[in-house]
């Protein structure tokens, strides 16, 4: 049987000199009915790369006779133990969901590192404004765990009732607001726009679906007068 192909994505990643590693499944557990966490042995992955907040890899997910790459944030990576967890948001019909649900200890999956990096703003801001959803929550938790007492205000968009049971690394000084996803993200944008807070001296980190992220950046710049350099934003997925 022929080996599944990475197709055009594989050629692009190779051209950009992505580094390949192999992860081995250790175990799995449901965090909620819609979130499955898999634990992996990382092999040499964490030997070569310094761990940093929002660290992510591209997993090559089987999809018939092809492999498709999807980006996932590393959860609690441990270089000494050579382990990491990865959380899968479960969606019917998704190849990543099907693979994660069927994964058993000893199963392997290829991972490519290309583009993961992080730089803290300098000087330290007076606080953080963080807007995301369940897809970016692992990255948000990695940020919150490293704030060292800097206050943060967090808005998280949910689609399923049990999303609000997902753990959030909220320390004292962190205010978390869950917002139901409505009108393709418009409800989240409106909530942030109407929150009426002082953004002076703060740094914003935004990661939702691509369209919602763009709209939130506009709100932060126009409504709250944040400079472009005070906003880190990326679209984590497309509807």
UniProtKB/TrEMBL annotation:
**InterPro entries reported in the protein's UniProt record:** FAD-bd_FR_type, FNR_nucleotide-bd, Riboflavin_synthase-like_b-brl, SIP_FAD-bd, SIP_fam, SIP_rossman_dom
Molecular function, one GO term: oxidoreductase activity
Report which residue ranges the record marks as coiled coil. none
Domain FAD-binding FR-type, by residue range, is 18-121
* UniProt superkingdom: Bacteria
Q: Which PROSITE patterns match?
A: FAD_FR
Q: PANTHER family given for it?
A: FERRIC REDUCTASE, NADPH-DEPENDENT, NADPH-DEPENDENT FERRIC-CHELATE REDUCTASE
Name listed for the protein in its UniProt record: Siderophore-interacting protein
**Organism whose genome encodes this protein:** Thermocrispum agreste
């Amino acid at each position: 049987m022929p080996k599944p192909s990475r197709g055009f994505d594989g050629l692009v990643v190779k051209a950009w000199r992505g580094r390949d590693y192999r992860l081995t499944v250790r175990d799995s557990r449901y965090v909620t009915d819609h979130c499955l966490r898999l634990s992996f042995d990382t092999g040499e992955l964490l030997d070569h790369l310094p761990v940093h907040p929002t660290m992510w890899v591209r997993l090559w997910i089987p999809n018939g006779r092809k492999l498709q790459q999807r980006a996932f944030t590393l959860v609690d990576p441990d270089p000494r133990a050579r382990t990491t967890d990865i959380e899968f948001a479960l969606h019917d019909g998704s190849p990543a969901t099907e693979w994660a649900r069927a994964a058993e200890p000893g199963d392997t999956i290829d991972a490519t590192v290309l583009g993961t990096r992080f730089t803290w703003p300098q000087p330290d801001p007076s606080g953080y404004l963080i807007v995301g959803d369940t897809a970016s929550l692992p990255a948000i938790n990695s940020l919150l765990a490293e704030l060292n007492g800097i206050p943060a205000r967090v808005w998280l968009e949910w689609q399923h009732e049990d999303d609000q049971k997902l753990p959030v690394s909220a320390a004292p000084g962190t205010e978390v607001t869950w917002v139901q996803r409505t009108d393709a993200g418009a409800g989240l944008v409106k909530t942030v726009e109407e929150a009426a807070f002082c953004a002076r001296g703060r740094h914003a980190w935004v990661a939702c679906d691509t369209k919602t992220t763009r709209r939130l950046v506009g709100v932060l710049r126009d409504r709250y007068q944040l400079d472009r350099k005070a906003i880190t934003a990326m679209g984590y997925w497309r509807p």
